[in-house]
Amino acid sequence: MRAVSRNLSGANKGGSVAEDQEQTTEAESEKRLWYKQWWAIAGIAFILGIGVGAAPSESSQEGETIEASSKPATVDTSALTQEIEALKAERDEATTEAEETSDELSEAQDQLSKVQDELDSKNSAEAEAEAEKAKTTFTDGTYLVGTDIPAGRYKGTPTADSAYWQISSDANGSDIIENNNTAGDFYVQVSAGQFLEINWAEITLVE
């Protein structure tokens, strides 16, 4: 009886050990399963994290590319500005020269006008003098004093080697009052009603 009881006790003890081992195995299996699930979740989260991190980077690059392409190209206009300023300076210089030339031309025209006026005045004076001289200067011919020529004293100048003048009381010259042949200048005094004949000479009224 004692042997049987021991055996039973040993059997009971062995059954308890087996149950403990079985429970330990199940716990270890559950623990391994939990680790696998955790690593799987961690791996998925890691992959998603990389994807999320990469996506903004690509989007940012695309945004930078679009922004860079939308910016206008920068052009260096300094050389063009200098050229424009140089052309403006040349234009201003040419304008100044043109104005100076215009002023000089205007001044020259004024001087020319003054000279022309003086010349016209001189010509007019000379013409008047010639006209007056024509009234008091006479050449070859017979003149009735008081009608053809004014009475007065005349100065005569030969127009040839010698001159001849004659004063008479009639147109035919038959009644000679005074006459003379001369190679130099001469003077004659005539009164109204007398006739003066001039040959190869020019006479001018002096008083």
What's the SSE blueprint?
Elements: H1 2-70, H2 78-136, E1 137-138, E2 141-144, E3 152-158, E4 163-168, E5 176-182, E6 186-190, E7 195-199, E8 201-205
Antiparallel strand pairs: 1-8, 2-7, 3-6, 3-8, 4-5, 4-7
Characterization of this structure:
There is one protein chain. The protein has helices spanning 2-70, 78-136; strands at 137-138, 141-144, 152-158, 163-168, 176-182, 186-190, 195-199, 201-205. It is of the alpha+beta class. Among the domains are: 1-71; 139-205, no CATH class. The strands form two sheets. It has a four-stranded antiparallel sheet with strand order 1-8-3-6. It has a four-stranded antiparallel sheet with strand order 2-7-4-5, with no helix packed on it. The longest helix has 69 residues, at 2-70. It is rod-shaped, with a radius of gyration of 73 Å. The N and C termini lie far apart (210 Å). Residues 1-14 have low confidence and may be disordered.
Poorly predicted tracts of residues: 1-14
Question: What's the count of strands?
Answer: 8
Please identify the structural class as seen in this structure. Answer: alpha+beta
Shape: rod-shaped
Spatially, the strands of the biggest sheet line up as 1-8-3-6
Summed up, the helix count is: 2
Residues in helix, %: 55-70%
Q: What does the largest sheet look like? A: 4 strands, antiparallel
Overall radius of gyration: 73 Å
Strand content: 15-25%
Query: In whole angstroms, how far apart are the ends?
Result: 210 Å
